[in-house]
Amino acid sequence: MGRRSRRNRLPPEPVEAVIENLSHDGRGIARLEGKTVFVANALPGERVMFRYTRLQRKFDQGRAVEILDASPERVEPACPHADLCGGCSLQHLGSRHQLRHKEGMLAEQLAHFGGLEPGEWLEPVTGPVTGYRGKARLGVKYVDGRGTALVGFREKGNSLIADIQQCEVLLPQVGHRLMELRELVNGLDCRRRLPQIELAAGEETLALVFRHMDPLSEADQRAITDFCRERQWHCYLQPGNETTVHRVWPETGAERLWYRHPDFDLELGFHPCDFTQVNAVINRRMVKLALDLLDIDGHHRVLDLFSGLGNFSLPAARRAGHVTGVEVGESMVERGFENARHNGLENLGFHAADLTREPELSGWAGEHYDRVLLDPPRSGAAEVMEWLPRTGADRVVYVSCNPATLARDAGELEKQGFALTKVGVIDMFPHTAHVESIALLER
Q: Is the dihedral of CA 262, 264, 267, 268 positive or negative?
């Protein structure tokens, strides 16, 4: 027992290392005495002093505390909390180099999991690198020892809420008002039983959803409602799971936020708990690129798998003869029809189906389609890959939030007679290691 504890004891002093590479999650990679060490806040080519934060059997972890020889790619983070907060991992790397790193990660995954090399690399889809995030779940923790609440993302490498005063990637309306949120929580009776505040932003307004573990006192509900009313934010309470979310202000009117696709003259409504993209600017550019790659006209029938509330389906309906959207949840199907009616579109339909199982060749799944678009979750779309060629489509656009599952699925489609002709990175989450991408596959 004594030998184990000595072996796992963290060295008390900083250690010098040369960083050789960058990991998929944005940490520097060093090798000391034949063992790999992942070093946060370190870039390839740098010589750093780092402290060990965790010792493990196969690899160790650490954090750079002094940069002895800095990389020319290193920049001063826009946020003073970048070294502490886990919301971002790459603020110390210039934006252009972040994109190059993400392209490298995508290329590596395509080669490793799919044995693929694209015919052409698309220019990255880029937008604002600060103040871009309009969807987020902020952790809340009242710390008795400090006599104050913390509101924000968790610290790097642990589950503690970071002590930050503002956030540069959230929309400024909220990111620069974290101290106001902290003051609100400090004054609540339920301050020790309010673990989360969820943000959802539309074009003109935004909503906050307050998760509370115990029933609210009248004073607490009034304080939360007044806080949102003064800022003209929609206010929701969540006493249990997502089915318990309900709006308390405004007291009348439809429970919808709205975002637009100006290129397609569309306005889409959504509930704050619906899945929507976190970056409105990038979403508009991504949708336009996806439809340009699909190359559709009024004669084409389009199948949109994992269609959500119609983010791609409705814009596609502006160009196609007919669009079929398929999503697992009935609520999203209803939202798709609702948005179609709102925009006066009649050439599309939505269906609920479990896309983690191969579709049966009946109903929508038995019809012919000229084009297919997929925007699956991180787990990908493996279950529909063997079936997809039976649609008759000769062009497939795959929007991915996980390069590994994109590579796997694209490799399967290649076996079915499709070639990966174009691929590119979508910078949906600047300053993070998250890699969003888009691919065109042609028969």
A: negative
Whole-number Å distance between alpha carbons of 232 and 332: 27
Is the N-terminal amide bond of 124 cis, ω within 30° of 0?
no
Model-level pTM greater than 0.70?
A: yes
Q: What are the residues facing 206 on neighbouring strands?
A: 201
The CATH code of domain 100-128+279-442 reads 3.40.50.150
53, 33 contact by CB (below 8 A): no
Domain with CATH 3.40.50.150 in the chain: 100-128+279-442
Judge whether 278 and 290 are in contact, CB under 8 Å: no
Fold of 2-74: OB fold (Dihydrolipoamide Acetyltransferase, E2P) (2.40.50)
Q: What 3-state DSSP class applies to 74?
A: strand
Burial of 119-149, coded b for 16+ CB within 10 Å and e otherwise, reads eeebebbbbebbbbbbbbebbbbbeeeeebb
Asked if residue 426 lies in contact with residue 125, where contact means CB atoms within 8 angstroms, the answer is yes
In the chain, where does the domain assigned CATH 2.40.50.1070 lie? 135-249
- How many angstroms separate the CA atoms of 94 and 26, rounded? 12
Fold designation for 135-249? OB fold (Dihydrolipoamide Acetyltransferase, E2P) (2.40.50)
Q: 361, 411, 360: which is closest to 381 by C-alpha?
A: 411
Catalytic residues: 401
Three-state secondary-structure class, residue 14: coil
The set of residues, in sequence order, having a beta carbon less than 8 Å from that of 319 and lying 6+ positions away, is 291, 296, 297, 298, 300
Q: What single letter denotes the amino acid at residue 157?
A: G
Calculate ∠ Cα 79-80-86, nearest 5°.
70
* Average pLDDT of adjacent 10-residue blocks, the chain of 443 residues: 54 94 92 94 95 93 95 94 92 95 95 93 97 97 95 91 96 97 97 97 96 97 98 97 95 92 98 96 98 97 97 98 95 96 97 88 91 97 94 97 96 95 98 96 96
Q: Where in the chain is the domain with CATH 2.40.50.140?
A: 2-74
End-to-end CA distance of the chain: 61
